[in-house]
Design brief:
The structure is a homodimer of 347-residue chains. Chain A is α/β, with parallel strands linked by helices. Helix content of chain A is 45%, strand content 14%. Chain A has twelve helices and ten strands. In chain A, the strands form two sheets. Chain A has a six-stranded parallel sheet with strand order 2-1-3-4-5-10, with helices on both faces. Chain A has a four-stranded parallel sheet with strand order 7-6-8-9, with helices on both faces. In chain A, strand 8, helix 11 (252-264) and strand 9 (274-277) form a beta-alpha-beta unit. In chain A, helix 1 (5-12) packs across helix 2 and helix 6 (108-118) runs parallel beside helix 7. Chain A starts with a helix and ends in a 19-residue tail after the last strand. Mean pLDDT of chain A is 84; it is low at 71-76 and 281-296. The structure holds a DNA duplex (16 and 16 nucleotides).
Amino acid sequence: MPVKLKDLAQQLGLSQTTVSRALNGYPEVSEATRDRVLRGARRLHYQPNARAQRLATGRAMAIGHVIPTATKYALVNPIFADFMAGAGETYAGAGYDLLMSVVREEDELDAYRQMAARGSVDGVIVHGPRAEDPRIALLKSLGLPFVVHGRLDGPDQSYAWLDINNGRSFRRAADLLFDLGHRRLALLNGPEVMDFAARRRAGYLEAHRARAIPADPALMLADEMTEGFGFRAGLELLRSEAPPTAFLVSSYIIALGVRRAAETLGLSLGTDISLITHDDDLSYLNNRGEVPAFSATRSSAREAGRRCAEIVIERIAEPDSPPLQELWETELTIGLSTGPCRSTDAT
Amino acid sequence: MPVKLKDLAQQLGLSQTTVSRALNGYPEVSEATRDRVLRGARRLHYQPNARAQRLATGRAMAIGHVIPTATKYALVNPIFADFMAGAGETYAGAGYDLLMSVVREEDELDAYRQMAARGSVDGVIVHGPRAEDPRIALLKSLGLPFVVHGRLDGPDQSYAWLDINNGRSFRRAADLLFDLGHRRLALLNGPEVMDFAARRRAGYLEAHRARAIPADPALMLADEMTEGFGFRAGLELLRSEAPPTAFLVSSYIIALGVRRAAETLGLSLGTDISLITHDDDLSYLNNRGEVPAFSATRSSAREAGRRCAEIVIERIAEPDSPPLQELWETELTIGLSTGPCRSTDAT
DNA sequence: GTGAAAGCGCTAACAA
DNA sequence: TTGTTAGCGCTTTCAC
């Protein structure tokens, strides 16, 4: 039988109220009493019953993460895990639990509705927004505080988000490749209904426009982020009449496929062709069996998780405050797979 | 303001008691009344308040998963995500939430203690048991129902687990390679403090003993499951005096490294050397840019998740029932990376 | 078959 | 600064 507030109060000869206040850091309790209470709580191994606290306060002390099991837009990546770790850290520090709901894509909205209706969470983090994302409208109508990891265009920007500057990072990556003499850059992107992918494409195009280099639609492919896509696309492009001299790819998993395609054709990355992948997704790309930038990447994902958690907790406390919107700059990782253009027909 | 039980009862001219009973499927309520209640609940969009239910019943209606953020023994893999999806499915069907706690390894036991003390979960699933795993003893002493995904040797087998037959699958993989004429099989294993890794090693050794083929310790390596390990180990072994003709590796991520090592040395998988990885971890291994066995693997992980969830829910209902222990056979995936031994010195 | 009433263990007005 | 009291919204004896 666990010791409860009542027991503790009796032991100390105090009222439950005072004990509760002491424990919860209310200012009106005297330091002497607080000390006695904290000491007693420790001695009796008192742990408040979370269920009772939740009912009494009307708060769930939990944040929800709804993960659709879409095999296509694989959320399964180390970055995501680090994001969760970062968020989890912050939650733990703030006394929140992390409620995860893994559902089929078609049940996604219902999952939010249910969380809201049953009051099992106080707020949610939304991952990977898509164009015209219905989740945002839904969460607003439910009055459930939320923060979006990512963001999207639209007339209504009255919600909190945290995003990395996808457009600019791809713009800069393309610029770098142009500076190295490349002119035909393949873009292997994720599904362009995903906001991040659309922005990356925009950055790629912008770089072309800025130098008045025509962007060849034949070089711009988008599909699910798998090694298979990277391999097939890489093979096809490299074997084509006018192959690219460099690849700009949207995820390390696609990059793995490109690397294999290059190897299959006897081409060497960083020498014959260049390859850049987004920092946010970088992993096993260099040729040494090392994963040097990986940990940096992972820690940045962790930081994003932490920050998103902070933001959602803030919004729970102050639902009507102006929504925080943060755009983060990220570095692209060039690693060992990028070099000057060696192709003779690149002018 | 959400509609609550009281409102619903008033609307229907019934007592809260009857409405509650009707909703929760108690037998003593008449069919007519139950119908009226269910209809009314739907009409008014009644959703029970989870916090109140939890307090009243004394159950959390949640299952905990504690994930240590050990970068070394990366839990970050698609298999894990599918396991979670399977578990999540079952939870949702049974009205349970999934509470995830991502903590530093040293805080792992505390996470369980806290879950138990605060009553935020009714049971937990333990992942990846290690030799002499302290979590099991702890959970027993806490009286928190649990099921282990994986298992371990030890005098006390009085706990529920679900495991795949790691030993037998590696035994069979080695047998297959022997049948193909290979004699020098490298084993690139995960950390052998992990139960699954120890069992895989045992299976590998057993196959050797059965054919009276000496197992060369120089060919048996164990380290963290990274591409880097696979690459370095692959390179080193393949360049050695007496290289292996086949690799038996414990995870697809290690296999990626081996593949790269082979390619670096101009060797072709499936022709010059063979490579088998465990079904449970298979991913991007074949040479076609396809991931054929992947979905099968993933669905089996999902099934394991479902089953573990079922087991833990059963144990919550019947904590004193004899623990369920299930050993699953799995297939190894041979894919396109395995062929007869071509090496002349394999006799 | 239905209802009244007493909690579940805590928090938070309000009063002292 | 501390205590009294009334809930939070549901479940569950117990009585009818």
